[in-house]
Fold Trace amine-associated receptor 1.
Amino acid sequence: MMSFCHNVINISCEKSSWSNDVRASLYSLMVLIILTTVVGNLIVIISILHFKELHTPTNWLIYSMATVDFLLGCLVMPYSMVRSVEHCWYFGEVFCKIHTSTDIMLSSASIFHLSFISIDRYYAVCDPLRYKTKINILVIFVMIFIGWSIPALFAFGMIFLKLNFKGTEEMYYKYVHCIGGCSVFLSKTSGVLAFMTSFYIPGLIMLCVYCRIYFIAEGQARSIDANQKLQIGLEEKTRISQSRERKAAKTLGIVVGVFLTCWCPFFVCTVMDPFLDYTIPPTLNDALVWFGYLNSTFNPMVYAFFYPWFRRALRMILFGKICQKDSSRCKLFLESNP
């Protein structure tokens, strides 16, 4: 039997017809994603705040990104979970706008931070002698400010000024709008703008930076191998340098791969839907949103736990050693790292 989100059937959104078993499975899966996102990013936040050795410009950028992803897990995902499973919005129209704006803002801010971190790693690997002068704490704070402010202005401006369906108001209110729902409707113009701002431009930056680092790392590795016999005195130094560059290239490769895998399907569907007369099923779009959320779940694993000093910080946090006196001064770097 068909059920609705609101008492007035002819203007109400249709409620989910899934069985209780399907609902329970979906809730369990989404709760697991939310908890993993929140806990993983919280550990990164605590690590960087607590350990003085991690108070570096690069790590403040990672800290800011972890904060974005943590807030996404706390403030956005739980309400999105109810909406995705029930196909209804129970929290009011005003909060729908706030939630939608916050969702777009935090998702975009997370992507912006990824692109800024790739730029930071580019200078660390490709121009190490001038890295500290080019990427200082002021530059990092500018990156953080841009990473938060532009997504906030874009998201809240678009939703609260109703720019997302400007020019298609008649179609939206006649065929799409219903009471008890909370979905993002984008016109052709706003869909392309969202695609360019939140995905294409930062994604292109990440891809270009990764390719640049990869080719530089490979070129230097071949150069080191070719001259290894002539540079016996510098063997250890060149070995560390080669390992560092390959590690940076590998890390950024994983980052780009995870980013594209998680967000590409959603943004391609988002930009194509208006040109296909909105024929993409809402259920598919909802599933792709959660696939995009997984990027925030994986970020702490890729960026933090990939490095041994963060794993040491994790062990200290889990075993309660951070409560000991002077634990903030513990040495986490056991070797020279970029």
